[in-house]
Amino acid sequence: MGETDTHPELRLSVDTGTDAEYSQDRLRSLYEWLNAEDALRGSARLRGAPPAAGSMGAVLESVTVAVGSGGIAGVLARSVAMWLVQGRRSDVKVTVVAEDGRRVEVDVHRARDPEAVMRQVAYLARGQETSADG
What we know:
Elements: E1 9-15, H1 20-36, E2 44-49, E3 59-66, H2 72-85, E4 93-98, E5 103-107, H3 114-133
Antiparallel strand pairs: 1-3, 1-4, 2-3, 4-5
Helix pairs in contact: 2-3
């Protein structure tokens, strides 16, 4: 991971438990959802893995979100939680990894409580905001 404009990043990945193409579609959906949030617009980026031999391009691997001061943690946590619980027709697992290796995994079939999801993601994001401040 790395830093974007001196702000630490959180890496979000999506696993649907089915084929990789569907997981990539869900990852794009999460990316678009995050960029629809005014406070997050421009801080989320799609990241790809190097292309496999014989393939025509990179495979989407994650969404990275630059977090700094200004309450991004709460906005990110709420947005991820709402994406998970709204309109999911299949099981989806979102993994959020901080630069220091701390991680949270949330399965949609366990995401009946958006408040619990928000607390878990906010915990990681706040830790990243703190490290960006000093």
